[in-house]
Write a structure and sequence with these properties.
transmembrane transporter activity, two-stranded antiparallel sheet, 4 strands, transmembrane helix, cell membrane, globular, two-stranded antiparallel ribbon, 339 residues, mainly alpha, 77% helix
Length: 339
């Protein structure tokens, strides 16, 4: 009897430790869920497809979705504050085609690229000002930014503009290979943006304020935190990422096009939510958003291997999004009960 009790006690202790860990790190549950889905998909694809070369496929996913990963980084900041930014796809298209036009007119790449990032920041600042000083809902304010950027893209050109500048094309054409893996400068930029964002959110006062504002804006004001400035900077960061994504997409495709990025804002939001960021704000991680982008990219890859129509990508992502929204609601309810 004593021996049986001694065996049961460590098991009970381990279960108790597991419950305490989940209670203290409940925000990580959706991230671990997304990571689990990614691993299951990888294992299933490797087992089902004989020619599924994991290093090459994952490298290809980063190559094809580098612009989406950069957009997801900026969107994570905005959603963490409890906002939304529907303009990112249009801003990406505008900065991309404007960059192609400027390069075609002989503007040096060292001038054109920073200018696109500044333009993205300016549109993000405009949206932030509408939200903070004119009390416009983030959905409507970012919709204004989306129409503005898309219209400006058509003003630049109604047709695609091919890029001939070797400096910009180098970002996509150069590959660094090692042990079956490869990466391009665009992929490096995307991963650096994730690393910088993760450090900012984890280790800086601004990052902690982002979480506080998204968790409870009124409490953040009462604590004397710079709520207005923080939300403005969050939208500026989203605009900067959209401008940078426009450059990456233009380098990837070799041309700027005013219809680029149609619906990309929804793909970005889906990747961020699948990665575990709460749409209500205050909880989430940029590393989770990166996992969400890889889940999205792997779904497209597997569907291509199956030879099915790409419409199944939308269906699958929609189903995953539904699951993660339900998980988010359960987390919010559990947090409300504990408080």
């Amino acid at each position: 009897m004593t021996t049986l009790t001694a065996v049961r006690r460590p098991a009970a202790q381990r279960a108790s430790l597991g419950r305490r860990f989940l209670a203290r790190h409940v925000a990580w549950v959706p991230v671990f869920a997304a990571l689990g889905i990614l691993l299951v998909m990888i294992i299933g694809a490797v087992a089902y497809f004989p020619n599924f070369q994991l290093p090459r496929i994952l490298s290809s996913i980063l190559l094809d979705n580098a612009y989406l990963l950069v957009l997801a980084v900026g969107m994570t900041f905005v959603i963490l504050t409890g906002g939304i930014d529907l303009s990112v796809g249009a801003v990406m298209a505008f900065t991309g085609i404007l960059c192609a036009r400027l390069l075609g007119d002989g503007v040096p790449v060292g001038v054109a690229v920073p200018s696109m990032i500044l333009i993205g920041a300016a549109i993000g600042l405009l949206i932030g000002l509408l939200v903070q000083y004119f009390d416009v809902q983030p959905f409507i304010a970012s919709l204004v930014g989306m129409f503005l950027a898309r219209g400006l893209a058509f003003v630049v050109s109604l047709e695609s503009i091919k890029v001939e500048d070797g400096g910009l094309l180098w970002l996509q054409s150069t590959r660094f290979s090692f042990a079956g893996w490869y990466i391009t400068p665009t992929g490096i930029i995307a991963l650096l943006s994730v690393a910088i964002a993760a450090i900012v959110l984890r280790y800086t006062r601004f990052g902690r304020t982002i979480y506080a504002v998204g968790g409870n804006e009124q409490s953040a004001r009462l604590m004397g935190l710079a709520v207005v400035r923080t939300k403005l900077i969050a939208y500026v960061i989203s605009g900067v990422c959209a401008g940078l994504a426009g450059i990456i997409l233009t380098a990837y495709s070799g041309a700027g096009y005013p219809l680029n990025g149609m619906g990309t804002e929804l793909d970005t939001i889906a990747a961020v939510v699948i990665g575990g960021t709460l749409l209500t704000g205050g909880s989430g991680f940029v590393l989770g958003s990166m996992i969400g982008v890889f889940v999205y990219g792997l779904i497209k890859t597997i569907i291509s291997f199956l030879g099915a129509e790409q419409s199944w990508t939308r269906i699958t992502v929609g189903a995953l999004l539904l699951v993660f929204v339900v998980v988010q609601r359960l987390i919010v309810r559990r947090s409300a009960r504990r408080s």
